[in-house]
Structure formats: structure tokens, C-alpha cells
Amino acid sequence: MSIDTMNHDQAVSSHAAERYIVGELSDAERESFEGHYFDCPVCFEQISADKQLIGEFLSHAREVLAPEPEKSWLAQMLEDLRRPAPVFVSALLLCALGIGVYQQSVISGLRSPRVDARYFLPQDSRGGAAKPINVSRKAGLSLTVVFTSQPEFVAYRAQIVADSGKIKYKSSPSQPVGDSLTIDLPADALAPGDYYVVVQGVTKDGNEAVAATSGRFELSFAD
Fold it and tell me: Which residues are paired to 123 by β-bridges?
């Protein structure tokens, strides 16, 4: 039985990356998310950063729990935990402590305000005027492209292409909202320059073909 790969919006709304790290996804959710994040630079970067955070926490925990010359009540308790009898209990304590700190850091990050720069790109030929987009490198960039859907396609994906013809960003296949498709990505995932958006249609057989070319935009950063 095949598992449908979740799209980026589903991954963000369900906090799939955070739950994947702490092992809270079901088998079906985990397979669905893994099918997405290897093809999504945003989620892949978040997974890598979160794993680094846990590694740094465990390294710091080992330093904090090192034996001290003078045995305080904490040192004495830790010495007791190192004895053979409660080794398993000690491991559970450290694991619970690590997960608790990690979850608090994730929740804090999710509650932090994020500035989104939203832009509308009407369907146009590649020769149209480039729309100027000037944003902070720390902003979340949201581009909504308009195109005419076609009956032979069951899903669509958007590609951000540089003027050189090189694909710089590719979204996961998803269902459009009406005749529009929205791409969400960190602004600094792209370098300053000229780009245009190509909408790829996906058939039932998984084949892809160009469905539309959207308007061009010129990206620059305010910081």
C-alpha cells in the first residue's frame, strides 16, 4: 500500500519536523514526511538544525554532570545515579530531561513572531517586466502564482527558475486553490537576482509537464 507524500503546508501545519525528531509521528506519518523532506530544502535544513541542537544539549549535559571536587547534594545524587543498580533509571532521567528542554526550545521558536512577505505574480510570459521584491533575509517569502488548470493534471508543483535557466527551488506536488498556487520558502533560500516561476502539472501516472509560466520577479534584500 503506497503512502501519499505530504506537501510543505501539511508539514508546517502539523509540526511534522519537530514531531519527527522526537519520535511522535506514526509509521504512516513518518513515511509520508520522509517522502517530503528529502525533496524540501526548508524541512531538510530544519531537521539538520534540530539534530545539531540535541547534540549540543547532550554535550552540555555531560559537562554539567561531570564529577566536582567537592561533593554537593547534586554531586552526591549524581554519584548515586552512576551506581550499577539505578543505571536504567538514570538513563530515563537524562532522556526525559533532554526531550523536555528540546520541546521547550521548539515551542519557543514557534511562538516567535515571523515576518511574511507576500506577493502576487499573475500569469505572464517570460518576457514580461520583472516584479521588484525587496525583503529582509530573515523573512518568510510567500509567492502566489496564477495559472489556468488543465484536466489532465491531478496536482501541480512550482519551480523558481533563474534567468540562466537553472532551477533554484522546487515545491512538492499539491492541489491548487482555484487557479492559484502558493510557494512558501525562507527569503534567504534564494540569492538576489531575477527569477521566474514555472508551474509543472503532474498526471495520474506521475509524469510532469509545463502547465504555465508565471511572471518574473527581481529579488533584493533590505538587510
Answer: 214
**SS3 of 139, please?**
coil
> Taking a C-beta distance cutoff of 8 angstroms, is the pair 187, 141 a contact?
yes
User: Same domain for 84 and 129?
Assistant: no
Entry pTM: 0.47
Which pLDDT does position 219 carry in this prediction?
92
Phi, psi of 96 (to 5 degrees): -65, -40
Please check whether residues 121 and 38 belong to one and the same domain.
Answer: no
By CB atoms closer than 10 A (0-12, 13-18, 19+), residue 166 is exposed
Give one word for 109, left, alpha or beta, with left for phi > 0 and alpha for psi -120 to 50.
alpha
Q: Which domain holds residue 183?
A: 116-221
Q: Is the pLDDT of residue 182 over 80?
A: yes
* Residue-wise pLDDT tens digits, 85-144: 455 555 555 655 566 655 565 555 544 445 578 888 877 645 567 889 999 888 888 888
Assign 71 a pLDDT band (cuts: 50, 70, 90): low
179 lies in a domain? yes
Provide the domain count of the chain.
Answer: 2
How far apart (Å, rounded) are the C-alpha atoms in residues 98 and 130?
48
At residue 15, what is the residue type?
H
CATH of the domain at 138: 2.60.40.1220
* Count of helix runs (H) and strand runs (E) in the chain: 6, 8
Q: Which residues sit opposite 141 in a β-bridge?
A: 117, 185
Same domain, 137 and 68: no
